[in-house]
Each structure stands twice: as structure tokens, then as C-alpha cells.
TrEMBL record:
This is TNase-like domain-containing protein. The lineage of its organism: Bacteria, Candidatus Fraseribacteriota. Residues 1-30 form the signal peptide. It holds the Pfam family LTD. InterPro entries: Lamin_tail_dom, Lamin_tail_dom_sf, SNase_OB-fold_sf, Staphylococal_nuclease_OB-fold.
Length: 286
């Protein structure tokens, strides 16, 4: 089966969500050629049927979107959001070149990003590479949803009681970023012994925040902590951080690669050593 990857935009609607993948055995659509179509049916949160101007009817799978199945938590809501977005509307299909991130669509229209393997190493290691054309906007929307416990994050997230949450992992390119949000009502002292680890027990891949930030280091309510790693971190930046008690704090951890491209777990531990949040990619069941 030949798979062609597309982005699309519903006429008059925001284009952020609309990176699509057309799956058809004998597609004649040339990459780079926009194709107009009408959405006839929405199957679920990430799959639609369209009719092209020449009369062909084809299934469309969104690139960068992995909505819950209809029998999973928030599956029906994801389908409903998709229907509001595109059903019976005209869309433009535009060939996409990569398919490497999954996203959970929430009731509010926000997204939960779940990256999966980028198989082309030459593409993956390109510093300017972004696996989905709108990945920056998707991550920003996901952080907002996680921070406010919207949709999936409020009803399906198994760690929804934790005020400190891992909202996303950017694992591609030469600079990785782990995004952590304080979704509580009070500041949290991340310099008190909080720690992030990957799926291994390697000392190399675990960071106690206070080894870089010092103590105390308050992350205000609603604040965002970004933890940077990878070869893109300049030598002089490594093992440094921006000032604490700010709405956004950056920790520049290491020049090593921490997050595996074929899947990993980002695990957050409180000062008592208790696991309080786990972010897994590629996505598994809810």
C-alpha cells in the first residue's frame, strides 16, 4: 500500500490540526500539488473520508494526530471535535514529508503530543528538522491543555492528581526539551529534591533539579519548566539555568542525548522519591 502524507486546511478554519495522510493503493496525487476535497464522513478523531473533485472517495488519516479509539476514554469526544472542525467542509490537501508524532485530541480542541520513532536518521539528525509542520503550535496547545487539566488531561490522565506534570517531550533534532508545568494553585520548590529520569536507571540519564538550580527554586503556579539536552546545548550553557521564581524557567542539562527516538518514558519523582508523573511515548492505551 502506498502512503502519501498530507496537511490540509478547512476553508475558513485554523490550519493547525490539519496535517493529513492519504492512504490509497494507487494514488496519482503528485507531492507538492494541492488537492481540493470535501469531507463526507468523520470516522473518528483522526480519520475522515473525502471526495475529490474528480469524484474519487478516499480515506484520510491525519499526520501527527492519534486520537483515542471510539471505545477509549475521550474517543467519542475526539470524533465530535473532528466533526465540528471539518465535516461537510471543503479542505485542501498538501503533501507532507514525515509522519513521526502522535497527538491526543481533547474535548476542548487541545492536543496531547505523543512522539513516535523518526525512522530516517538523516532527517531526524537535521537541526532544523521538525517531524510535523506545526509541531511548535501543537506543543504549545498541549502545554496549555495539560496546565489547565482540560479534556483528556482532566479526565483520562492517570496522573491527573499531580500538580507537577510532564506535558510534552521534544526528542528530535539536536536540542531536546522536556516540558513540565505547575498546574496547581501554589508555587512548587523544584529545588527541594525533584528529579526527572528516563526509562533506564542510568545515573547519566537522571537529573535532580537542585544540582543545577540550587535551592530554593520556586516554579510559580501556572509556570513552565523547560529542561534542555542534546548536542545543540552550547558548552557554556550546560549545567546552568535561568533565574528561579519566574513564570518560565529553563534548565540546560547536558550535551548528551537523553530521550530515545524509538520510544521512552519520562518519569518525574518528588523529593520523597515517589513517582508522581510518567509520560510515555509512543502512545499506549489510555
Amino acid at each position: 500500500m502506498k502512503i502519501m502524507k498530507f496537511k490540509a486546511s478547512a476553508v475558513g478554519l485554523v490550519t493547525l490540526l490539519l496535517a493529513l495522510s492519504l492512504v490509497t493503493p494507487n494514488s496519482s496525487i503528485a507531492q507538492g500539488a494541492l488537492q481540493k476535497a470535501t469531507v463526507l464522513e468523520v470516522q473518528d478523531g483522526d480519520t475522515i473520508d473525502v471526495r475529490f473533485e474528480d469524484g474519487r472517495r478516499e480515506p484520510i488519516r491525519y499526520v501527527g494526530i492519534s486520537a483515542p479509539e471510539l471505545d477509549e476514554c475521550f474517543g467519542p469526544e475526539a470524533k465530535g471535535a473532528n466533526e465540528q472542525l471539518v465535516l461537510q467542509k471543503e479542505v485542501w490537501l498538501d503533501p507532507e514529508t514525515t509522519d513521526s508524532v502522535h497527538v491526543r485530541l481533547t474535548k476542548s480542541g487541545h492536543l496531547r503530543l505523543d512522539p513516535r520513532e523518526v525512522k530516517d536518521r538523516d532527517v531526524r539528525d537535521n537541526p532544523s528538522f521538525s517531524p510535523v509542520r506545526y509541531s511548535e503550535q501543537i506543543i504549545a496547545a498541549q502545554i496549555a491543555a495539560a496546565g489547565q487539566r482540560l479534556g483528556w488531561w482532566g479526565e483520562c490522565d492517570p496522573y491527573r492528581s499531580s500538580d507537577l506534570a510532564i506535558a510534552a517531550i521534544k526528542f528530535w533534532g539536536d536540542e531536546e526539551i522536556a516540558y513540565i508545568v505547575n498546574r496547581g494553585n501554589q508555587p512548587i520548590d523544584i529545588g527541594q529534591g525533584w528529579e526527572i529520569r528516563d526509562s533506564t536507571e542510568s545515573e547519566r540519564n537522571r537529573l535532580k533539579f537542585n544540582t543545577i538550580t540550587g535551592q530554593p527554586c520556586l516554579l510559580p503556579a501556572g509556570g513552565l519548566l523547560r529542561i534542555h539536552s542534546g548536542s545543540g546545548i552550547k558548552e557554556e550553557q550546560r549545567k546552568t539555568s535561568t533565574p528561579c521564581n519566574q513564570s518560565e524557567i529553563d534548565i540546560y542539562w547536558t550535551g548528551n542525548t537523553i530521550w530515545d527516538n524509538d520510544g521512552d518514558k519520562a518519569r518525574l519523582f518528588n523529593p520523597e522519591g515517589t513517582l508522581v508523573y510518567e509520560y510515555v511515548y509512543p502512545p499506549r492505551g489510555p
